[in-house]
Automatic annotation (TrEMBL):
One of its GO terms (cellular component) is plasma membrane. Gene3D superfamilies: Neurotransmitter-gated ion-channel ligand-binding domain, Neurotransmitter-gated ion-channel transmembrane domain. The lineage of its organism: Eukaryota, Metazoa, Ecdysozoa, Arthropoda, Hexapoda. The chain crosses the membrane at residues 245-263, 270-290, 302-325, 437-456. InterPro entries: GABAA/Glycine_rcpt, Neur_chan_lig-bd, Neur_chan_lig-bd_sf, Neur_channel, Neuro-gated_channel_TM_sf, Neuro_actylchol_rec, Neurotrans-gated_channel_TM, Neurotransmitter_ion_chnl_CS. This is Glycine receptor subunit alpha-4-like. It comes from Diatraea saccharalis (sugarcane borer). Keywords: Cell membrane, Ion channel, Ion transport, Membrane, Signal, Transmembrane, Transmembrane helix, Transport. Residues 42-223 form the Neurotransmitter-gated ion-channel ligand-binding domain. Pfam families: Neur_chan_LBD, Neur_chan_memb.
Length: 465
């Protein structure tokens, strides 16, 4: 004998005093129960909605993703419009064979056993509705209960943006039971079903490709059944190549044009380099502000910083050239003065004027040379000392060239200073020797950087796919 006492009492709430007041859904549900009674869809008296239908009950899950309606990179959330269907066999319900299925009221789910489905990464879930909520409960003639829901769900996804914009985000959606073990309930994917289609409709702007679904099965360590749906999100690189990589590369190439400009044209060359440098700094600030946060430097930030360094080195090279030109002009003037002084000293040595108050510490010795003695004197007169004081003779003067090897500077610091002087003289050469070398060296270094950059980051991105 079948009874409806338990279902009816489940839909009645205590009013006031000792009377019972039906809720607003009582009449509708009661009429549906009477209808089910006529159709032989009835609940036995010994039915317990808190106990699964049997040991190792299999719950089939199907997800049809309509579209990815939003991706919040800062919060690490993905919003999906999905159709979720959960089905299981309920042999305790006696179902007639004269009808393939019957649609039950959505409220009727409270009267039968339903799996305690839990989505680990779920943040929010909202059932869609137009004229009524998109939720249905269907009972098939073979005893299968099917629950279908159309909802918008927000999933929490752990994202890593170190490889941005070459990053590939793997987002897992785990469906499991929070109280039943694998001995009681198991969750599996329904691979073949008329209502299940893993195709995708729509896309999220132009930043992400349509997510590719890789369905895997997993059992967590706490012996609770879990079915995992994995979503992979990869970016469309075309926009990043056109908006960031290509302009920054052109700025670096334009900076090489400064090597072809005559160093004496300071305004033109400085404007070119400074404008290029400021443009790259502005681009870096814009990209850093609009891109998601990461614990390390992102891939695109490494690129922009490197391009900025290349332009800065070109500007620094120009400073060295300007300093060398200025040093070269001053040194040429000093070199001419020293050569004239050395020539005059060799042709007409200064005469010695010794008064009576000067005292000779050594006897006058020497040999007659044309009737004139060349004495070795130790003179105490200050004016005479200043006249014979040592003058710094540069290495390129004839005097330096005629000095014996023992008299040349052997000091290490003097040698280093000589090398630096020659380097500065080379940088300031009027023929632009340093500019010619930089015009070859900078492009080679930039090409080498491109090879290392793209090889490293593309290989890391391929490992995450």
């Amino acid at each position: 004998m079948w009874t409806f006492l338990i279902p009816i009492l489940a839909l009645v709430e205590l009013g006031g005093g000792a009377t019972f007041a039906p809720n607003k859904e009582l009449l509708e549900c009661a009429s549906q129960i009477l209808y089910m009674d006529q159709q032989m869809y009835q609940i036995p008296t010994n039915y317990n909605r808190n106990i699964p239908p049997g040991k190792n009950t299999t719950v089939y899950i199907g997800v049809n993703v309509n579209r990815v309606s939003g991706v919040d990179e800062n919060k690490g959330e993905i919003t999906l419009d999905v159709f979720l269907q959960v089905s299981w066999e309920e042999k305790r319900l006696h179902v007639p064979k004269n009808s393939p299925f019957i649609d039950l009221p959505w409220e009727y789910r409270q009267l039968i056993w339903t799996p305690d489905l839990y989505i680990w990464q779920l943040q929010t879930m909202k059932i869609l509705s137009v004229l009524q909520e998109m939720a249905s409960l269907r009972l098939y003639s073979n005893g299968t209960v099917s629950v279908s829901i159309g909802a918008t769900i927000t999933i929490k996804c752990e994202m890593d943006f170190v490889l941005y914009p070459l990053d590939v985000q793997n987002c897992d959606i785990d469906f499991s039971s929070y109280k039943y073990t694998t001995q009681d309930v198991r969750f599996e994917w329904r691979e073949v079903a008329p209502w299940l289609g893993l195709g995708l409709v729509g896309e999220h702007r132009n930043q992400y490709r349509l997510p590719k679904y890789v369905v895997t099965f997993a059992t967590d360590k706490s012996e609770h059944s879990a079915a995992r749906l994995q979503i992979k999100l990869s970016r469309e690189l075309r926009s990043y190549l056109l908006e960031s990589y290509l302009p920054s590369s052109l700025f670096v190439i334009i900076s090489w044009g400064s090597f072809c400009v005559i160093p004496e044209i300071v305004p033109g060359r400085m404007v070119l380099l400074v404008t290029t440098l400021l443009s790259l700094v502005t681009m870096f600030d814009t990209v850093s502000t609009n891109s998601p946060d990461a614990l390390e430097l992102k891939c695109i930030e490494v690129w922009l910083i490197s391009c900025t360094i290349f332009v800065f080195l070109a500007l620094l090279e120009y400073f060295v050239v300007l300093f060398g030109i200025r040093y070269d002009k001053n040194w040429s003037r000093r070199r001419q003065d020293l050569r004239r002084a050395a020539s005059a000293a060799q042709l007409a040595p200064p005469p010695l004027h010794i008064n009576h108050t000067q005292r000779l510490s050594t006897p006058v010795t020497g040999t007659p040379q044309g009737g004139v003695f060349s004495p070795q004197l130790s003179v105490e007169d200050e004016g005479l000392k200043q006249q014979f004081s040592h003058q710094t003779i540069q290495r390129d003067s004839p005097i330096f060239d005629t000095m014996p090897p023992g008299d040349r500077p052997a000091n290490f610091m003097a040698r280093v200073a000589a090398v630096v002087d020659r380097g500065v003289m080379f940088c300031g050469a009027q023929h632009g020797a340093l500019d010619r070398i930089a015009l070859i060296l900078f492009p080679l270094c930039f090409c080498l950087f491109n090879i290392i950059y793209w090889t490293t980051y593309l290989s890391e991105a391929a490992q995450n796919k």
